[in-house]
Design brief:
By secondary structure, the protein is an alpha/beta fold. It has 11 helices and 12 strands. It has one domain: Aldolase class I (TIM Barrel, Alpha-Beta Barrel). Strands 1-4-5-6-7-10-11-12 form an 8-stranded parallel barrel, surrounded by 6 helices.
């Protein structure tokens, strides 16, 4: 995997019905289609400095099992960057399938958020570097099953349980900011980073400007590993190359 300062920006690709789309606040009824071929979008984001691309199987997230494996495999084979894949991965068999189709790592949400102890066996079998916990928050509590259900637990509490089970990387999404282009929930992200300095935290949702990127990274702890950027790129708010240039040099 590429490893440089610019790898702190992770472009996002959301797939639904075989097309590249974005949802607003996770609402399947509020969808915008950007391209009929997600693989072509992935190639656009596969530039020097991008180590990994975030791929979400929205059909899988809604239906409970991976639904776009052929497209995922096509994307993985066409890139020099690696991909991480989430959406509907709720069993060891699902994990195996997604890894076999070219993913570098898988993002687990529902299966480990509803039963954090299950992460222990998963991490033991596949390794901590291949497994990412996706914690999605809505109104201060964790949302699961494609953001349609509440897990009745706060993100920081859940992060602690997952850490105890062996998870070492978390993607945190504030659903209220996702697809809104209103800025990320920086306070929540920094609180999570500060609470678990041994965890690698990835911010997702809300980035709308180059200023958001500078603000997010300028004052955040070192364990803020990266930020996922989606709609702002598709809407032309800035170029990916410009986003990469905002990361402070260590």
């Amino acid at each position: 995997m590429r490893n440089d300062r610019s790898s702190k920006i992770i472009p996002a690709i959301d797939i639904r019905n075989g097309r590249c789309v974005r949802l607003v606040q996770g609402d399947y009824a509020r969808e915008k289609i950007y391209d009929g071929d997600p693989c072509e979008i992935a190639k656009r984001w596969d530039i020097p400095g991008v180590a990994i691309i975030h791929v979400v199987d929205l059909d899988g997230a809604r239906d409970g099992s991976p639904a776009n494996l052929k497209i995922i495999a096509k994307i993985a084979k066409s890139l020099s960057a690696k991909i991480e894949v989430g959406g509907g991965i709720r069993s060891k068999k699902d994990i195996e399938k997604v890894l076999e189709h070219g993913a570098e790592r898988v993002v687990l949400g529902t299966v480990i958020c509803e039963d954090p102890s299950s992460a222990r066996d998963i991490v033991k079998e596949f390794g901590a570097e291949r497994i990412v916990a996706g914690i999605d928050a809505k109104n201060g509590v964790v949302a699961t099953r494609g953001w349609l259900k509440s897990a009745n637990v706060e993100p920081i509490e859940l992060a602690g349980k997952l850490s105890d089970a062996g998870i070492r990387r978390i993607i945190f999404t504030d659903i209220s900011t996702d697809g809104m282009l209103g800025g990320p929930n920086i306070r929540a992200i920094r609180n999570l980073c500060a609470a678990y300095p041994h965890l690698k935290i990835i911010s997702s949702g809300g980035i709308s400007s180059l200023g958001d990127i500078r603000e997010l990274f300028a004052g955040s702890p070192e364990n803020l590993e990266a930020a996922i950027v989606g709609k702002a790129l598709y809407e032309g708010k800035f170029a990916l190359e410009e986003a990469l240039a905002q990361i402070p040099r260590s």
